[in-house]
Amino acid sequence: MDKKNLFVLAAGLLLATGCGDREKNTSPVGDRAARKVSEKLIEAQMGGQAEVDIDKDTVSIRTEEGQFDYSAGASVSLPEGFPADVVVYEGAKLESSMRTPDGFMLQMRSPDALEKITRVVGEKMKAKGWSQSAAFNMGGQSALSFEKEGRAATVSANKDGDSTMIVIVVDGAGTADNE
Predict the structure, then answer these.
(1) DSSP type of residue 78
(2) Residues 105-154: pLDDT tens digits?
(3) Distance separating alpha carbons of residues 109 and 9, to the nearest angstrom
(4) From CA 43, how far away is CA 37, in angstroms rounded?
(5) Which of 18-22, 97-101, 165-169 has the lowest mean pLDDT?
(6) Which helix (H) or strand (E) holds 144?
(7) I need a surface site. Which of 61, 66, 134, 174 has the fewest CB within 10 A?
(8) What is the pTM of this model?
């Protein structure tokens, strides 16, 4: 199973278990059953062992490839080890985060205009030593790709009603000093 499919499964597990709504989902038996079913599904897809923890707004999956974490909901925060040199748009509300052995993904929302977000992120990433390798902008959607020290970062933004959805993907994050 590739890592993207693993995260789709993790997100589905989080939704299926009530996204951490412990008032509706308080049964320890139900939690254990969801964890065991999740482990078996992942093991069948990967052909190896998997350990799944479902806790409030987070699903953690440990496999031979490493640790995979997905968080969503009111208590989501930047994942541990998120690179300090990757720009997180100021004032945006973080909605979900993923961490893999190879990188990170953040999804957030801002009331600011798409054009402002793209301009500010582009300027700040370059100021932090990233080289812009690609840019895309087509009515209501934009994406900027950057490279630095063997790592890649893509920041995409999409107009979504009266707000802008921002997605940051960092690959090769394990190769940099994240402090």
Answers:
(1) P
(2) 999 999 999 999 999 999 999 999 999 999 998 888 999 999 999 999 99
(3) 23
(4) 10
(5) 18-22
(6) strand 141-148
(7) 134
(8) 0.74
